[in-house]
Design a protein that fits this description.
It is a single chain. The protein has 2 domains: 132 residues, Four Helix Bundle (Hemerythrin (Met), subunit A); 209 residues, Translation initiation factor eif-2b, domain 2 (Rossmann fold), CATH 3.40.50. The chain is an alpha/beta fold. A hairpin with a 4-residue loop joins β8 and β9. The chain is globular, with a radius of gyration of 20 Å. The chain contains 11 helices and 16 strands.
C-alpha cells in the first residue's frame, strides 16, 4: 500500500506528490511549520490526507515545545493550530482535525505537559488508522453501486495518495474490482495541476487496474460514445444539503453525466461532511497562483500579462449527484434528510457504546 504520510521519530514523512510520476521522493518535515508548508505547497493533498497531516503537524509542534506548564503550552498550541488552519481553506477535514486535536488537548490538559504531548501524538496516529479503515468500509459500501463491467470516469485524485491509504473514490473502484467486477477506469487529466494524469493514472497502474488517461475536455465525447457507465469522484467538503465541493471541473463532469443519464457518485469520509454548512453557496473556494495556469513544467504557455482565474475547486449542486458514499452508509436524495439520518444514527451508536 502507498504510504502517503506517516509519523516517524524524525518527523512527519510524506511522499512528495509534486514529483510524481517521474520520481518517487519522500520528504520528512521536522517541524510543524514544515508540515504546514507541505500542505500549502501540495506535497501532500487530498482532503482526508490534509486533515491527518495537520493533526500530525500539531502533534509534532506540541511534542517539540519547551513550555514548562500547560498554560504556556496552550498559548503555543493556539499558534500551531492557527498556522495549520491558514494552509488550505476549502477542505473541511483540515478544520475537523484541528478541532479534534483541540478537544483532546482540553480533555487531558489537567494531567500535565508530558501527558498532553504523548496523548496528542497518539491521537494523530489513531486518526491515520481510522482513515484507512473508513476508506475500506466506504469501498465495501460503494462497490455494489458500480456496474459489473464497463467504463468508470474519475476526476482528480481520490485514491491512496489523497488519503492515508486505499482511497475514497478509487477505494470504491478497488473494492468493486476485488469483488470480481470488470471495470476500465477513465482518468481525467485534471488541469491545471494534473492530479489525474500525474497521480491517479500512476496509482491505478501500480495496482494493475486498466486505465485510460483523457484530457478534461474529452469526457463528454467519451460519454456520448457509450464508453462511460458511471462516474465517481471524491470531495473536499459536503454541505448538509448534499452540495459537493471538489476539484475544479467536477461540476462540468456532473452536468455531462446528467445529460447522458450516467450515475454520478461521490465518495468521502464522514469527516468531509460539514453539517454546519447549509449549502454549497457558503463553501470557501481556494484561489491558487496564476502561474499554475500560465506555466507548465516551468515553461510559459500563456502570454505575459494575461488575466487568470485559478479556483482550485467548484461546487456541484446536489441535483446532479446520484449518491454520496461514506463509511457510515450511502446517502441519496433528499440529501438534507439522508445525511441528517446518517449523522443521527452515528450519534446514537456512540451513545450505545458508552
Amino acid at each position: 500500500m502507498i504510504k502517503t504520510l506517516e509519523w516517524t521519530s524524525q518527523g512527519v514523512r510524506f511522499i512528495d506528490q509534486t514529483r510524481l510520476p517521474a520520481e518517487e521522493v519522500f520528504v520528512t518535515c521536522a517541524t510543524y511549520r514544515e508540515v504546514a508548508t507541505a500542505i500549502r505547497d501540495m506535497i501532500v493533498r487530498g482532503a482526508p490526507a490534509i486533515g491527518v497531516a495537520a493533526a500530525m503537524g500539531i502533534a509534532l509542534g506540541v511534542k517539540q515545545s519547551t513550555a514548562q506548564d500547560v498554560a504556556a503550552l496552550r498559548t503555543e498550541f493556539g499558534l500551531i493550530c492557527r498556522t495549520m488552519g491558514e494552509t488550505r481553506p476549502t477542505a473541511v477535514n483540515l478544520f475537523w482535525a484541528i478541532r479534534r486535536m483541540q478537544q483532546k488537548f482540553d480533555a487531558v490538559a489537567a494531567q500535565g505537559v508530558h501527558h498532553v504531548k504523548v496523548t496528542l501524538v497518539e491521537e494523530a496516529q489513531k486518526m491515520l488508522l481510522e482513515d484507512i479503515a473508513a476508506n475500506e468500509t466506504m469501498g465495501r459500501h460503494g462497490a455494489a453501486l458500480l456496474p459489473s463491467s464497463g467504463g468508470v470516469l474519475t476526476h482528480c485524485n481520490a485514491g491512496a495518495l489523497a488519503t492515508c491509504g486505499y482511497g475514497t473514490a478509487l477505494g470504491v473502484i478497488r473494492a468493486a474490482i476485488a469483488s470480481g467486477k470488470r471495470l476500465h477506469v477513465f482518468a481525467d487529466e485534471t488541469r491545471p495541476f494534473l492530479q489525474g494524469s500525474r497521480l491517479t493514472a500512476w496509482e491505478l497502474m501500480k495496482d494493475g487496474i486498466q486505465t485510460t488517461l483523457i484530457a478534461d475536455n474529452m469526457a463528454g465525447a467519451m460519454m456520448r460514445q457509450g464508453k462511460i457507465q458511471a462516474v465517481i469522484v471524491g470531495a473536499d467538503r459536503i454541505a448538509a444539503n448534499g452540495d459537493v465541493a471538489n476539484k475544479i471541473g467536477t461540476y462540468s463532469v456532473a452536468v455531462l453525466a446528467k445529460e447522458h443519464a450516467i450515475p454520478f457518485y461521490v465518495a468521502a469520509p464522514w469527516s468531509t461532511v460539514d453539517m454546519n454548512m447549509s449549502s454549497g453557496e457558503g463553501i470557501p473556494i481556494e484561489q491558487r497562483s496564476p502561474r499554475e495556469v500560465t506555466h507548465h513544467a516551468g515553461k510559459q504557455v500563456a502570454p505575459d500579462g494575461v488575466l487568470v482565474e485559478n479556483p482550485a475547486f467548484d461546487v456541484t449542486p446536489n441535483k446532479y449527484i446520484t449518491a454520496i458514499i461514506t463509511e457510515r452508509g450511502i446517502a441519496k436524495a433528499p440529501y438534507a434528510e439522508s445525511l441528517k439520518e446518517l449523522s443521527q444514527n452515528a450519534v446514537a451508536l456512540v451513545g450505545a457504546r458508552r
